[in-house]
């Protein structure tokens, strides 16, 4: 029975999906890749990565690069839009997908490279980094229709950056509700700035508004895409805040998953390592829960 690969990673833009599958020390020559418009298999015995894709891709325009310890797949979407998920779930497969009849593998182009890059995925992240920068420019230019309903505000109060600074100052002095108010008004003016949601999540944690903290952390993570080095720290903070909210709701398994996601981004963070281990100990019953 093959060993299923679960520690893959993926990111996306409107037009492309990028998947990285670790090769577990297997030589590139042993990797077999099969692709159709909605099915993907990367097989290198005894390991297997298999995906029924959430949406169809154009296999003729898709490529794969095998080398440097990973199979890097670049899949061209047939429809330009962001996917909610990479794969169909088992239930969705059973109710919505008519599996294709067996046929020859797709014409996805595979190249092998012995080169070693300083950053293993650097080449595949260029498009993602450009997409992230584009989104930041758009966020700064965004003008909300809420301005029409906020005519009584002072000029500075119509500036999301000014409101964010005000929220940050309120938070630093312990005025968490004041910070929530400032961030909330800034969000009404511009919903494309992830820091506003992430910072408001931190306030909700202080105020024990735990479900709201989860919602805001999730919204921040939605905006922090594609995943690139420039937003790594912000993503780690959002995962920790969502994980903390889960733990305070005594949903420790869900909390552990969030902390592990943060630790994957920042593996050398000693405090994060310790907090993650403490959650494991709570789940295993070897640590007491702080009240």
UniProtKB/TrEMBL annotation:
Show me the TPR repeat boundaries.
236-269
One molecular function GO term is:
nuclear estrogen receptor binding
Name the residues that span the membrane. Answer: none
- Where can this protein be found? Cell projection, Neuron projection; Dynein axonemal particle; Nucleus
GO biological process terms, semicolon-separated: determination of left/right symmetry; epithelial cilium movement involved in extracellular fluid movement; heart development; inner dynein arm assembly; nervous system development; outer dynein arm assembly
The main location class comes to: other
Cellular component (GO) terms are: dynein axonemal particle; extracellular region; neuron projection; nucleus
Q: Which Pfam families match?
A: CS, TPR_8
InterPro entries cross-referenced by the UniProt entry: CS_dom (IPR007052), CS_DYX1C1 (IPR037894), Dynein_assembly_factor_4 (IPR052004), HSP20-like_chaperone (IPR008978), TPR-like_helical_dom_sf (IPR011990), TPR_rpt (IPR019734)
**Keyword Nucleus among UniProt keywords:** yes
Q: Which residues belong to any copy of the CS domain? A: 3-87
Q: Which domain of life is it from?
A: Eukaryota
Instruction: Write the record's keywords in alphabetical order, separated by commas.
Output: Cell projection, Cytoplasm, Neurogenesis, Nucleus, Repeat, TPR repeat
| Full protein name | Dynein axonemal assembly factor 4
């Amino acid at each position: 029975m093959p060993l299923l690969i679960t520690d893959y990673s993926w990111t996306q833009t409107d037009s492309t999906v990028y998947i990285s599958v670790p090769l577990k020390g297997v030589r590139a020559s042993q990797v077999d890749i099969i692709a159709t418009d909605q099915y993907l298999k990367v097989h290198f015995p005894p390991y297997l990565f298999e995906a029924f894709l959430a949406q169809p891709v154009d296999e003729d325009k898709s490529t794969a690069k095998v080398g440097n310890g990973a199979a890097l797949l670049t899949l061209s979407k047939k429809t330009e839009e962001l996917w909610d998920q990479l794969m169909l779930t088992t239930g969705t497969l059973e109710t919505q997908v008519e599996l294709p009849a067996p046929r020859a593998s797709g014409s996805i182009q595979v190249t092998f490279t012995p080169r070693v890059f300083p950053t293993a995925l650097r080449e595949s992240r260029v498009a993602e980094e450009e997409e992230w920068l584009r989104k930041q420019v758009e966020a700064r230019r965004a003008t909300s229709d809420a301005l029409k309903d906020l005519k009584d505000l002072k000029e500075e109060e119509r500036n999301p950056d000014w409101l964010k600074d005000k929220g940050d100052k309120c938070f630093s002095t312990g005025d968490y509700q004041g910070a929530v108010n400032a961030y909330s008004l800034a969000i009404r003016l511009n919903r494309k700035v992830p820091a506003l949601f992430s910072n408001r999540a931190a306030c909700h944690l202080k105020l024990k508004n735990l479900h709201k903290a989860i919602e805001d952390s999730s919204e921040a993570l939605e905006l922090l895409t594609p995943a690139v080095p420039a937003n790594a720290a912000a993503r780690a903070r959002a995962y920790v805040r969502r994980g903390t909210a889960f733990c305070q709701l005594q949903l420790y398994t869900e909390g552990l998953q969030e902390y592990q996601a943060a630790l994957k981004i920042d593996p050398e963070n000693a405090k994060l390592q310790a907090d993650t281990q403490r959650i494991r100990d709570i789940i295993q019953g070897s640590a007491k829960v702080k009240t």
